[in-house]
Task: structure prediction
Amino acid sequence: MKVVASAGSQDIAMVYVVEFPGGLVECVEAIQPPRTREDKWVLMVSTLFGCPVSCQMCDAGGHYRGKLSEEEMFAQIQYLIDQRYPDGLVTSSQFKIQFARMGEPALNPAVLDLLASLPERVNAPGLLPSFSTIAPSGTDAFFERMIDIKNSVYPQGKFQFQFSIHTTDPVRRDELIPVKKWDFQKMAEYGERYYRPGDRKVTLNFALAEDSPVDPDVLLTYFDPEVFLIKITPLNPTYQAITTGLKSYVDPDKKLEDYPALQAIEEAGYRLILSIGEKEENQIGSNCGQYVQKHLLERGGLKEGYTYQVVQPLVDLE
Result:
């Protein structure tokens, strides 16, 4: 693995562009002020060279060139650990590793191999893997094995699982996520099998755009509030969102009480998380859906994001 470029702030988040024989990907390390790195440290690693999904809000989609190996994914984690904990002992109370920088992780079986071996490969008492998926069709065997790994390796809340669905309107969902994927009934049935007492609830994530409804009645039809929780996030500034005309429903400067439609989800019995990240991460380009290489290809022009200088900029992007 060769690091060929980086951008960010050591006090908030760093994005690294790394090169493998199969191509370029990115990995990220971040904290969430006012929490310190000793409280919570977050890594985001790539699982695919490109992504075949091309969600309407994501700059990391397109140009799919294959899967990273288990060792290539672990190399990203090891590099980031070495920068902050050179003795190898990660002392963060919560050490969260998200398989969510580039690529739909359920399309790479090696992700499961890494998850199964990770506690033996890192010295991190606070280890918390986090897996986010659109639930693409044809991945049933992958997700059944995930249940086995979660139960045997990460019991009692040591694993975080998330379906990214973005709206309860099936037609709108197909527009936002333009591939074949599980319907709500299948996702709900899987969540019921996945969840055990002591586990973290299964998250239903909505990076919420305008004209993308979240209907509590639809949620209640499929998703048991005892098993599922709801997370709402702003739509991060990306070139892809501009191209597809998406605008964020959530204003980072507002609070839950400013959104009666979201309050209705709580009133329906769900635990609701309104997750607003650091605004400066948008400028760095480290938030979910952002991708520094896309910014370099576009030669700038997105004032809401990607304003940090890229060190050792790439010269072979075209």
Remarks:
- The CA atoms of residues 8 and 276 lie 19 Å apart.
- Residues 2-298 form a domain with the TIM Barrel fold (CATH 3.20.20.70).
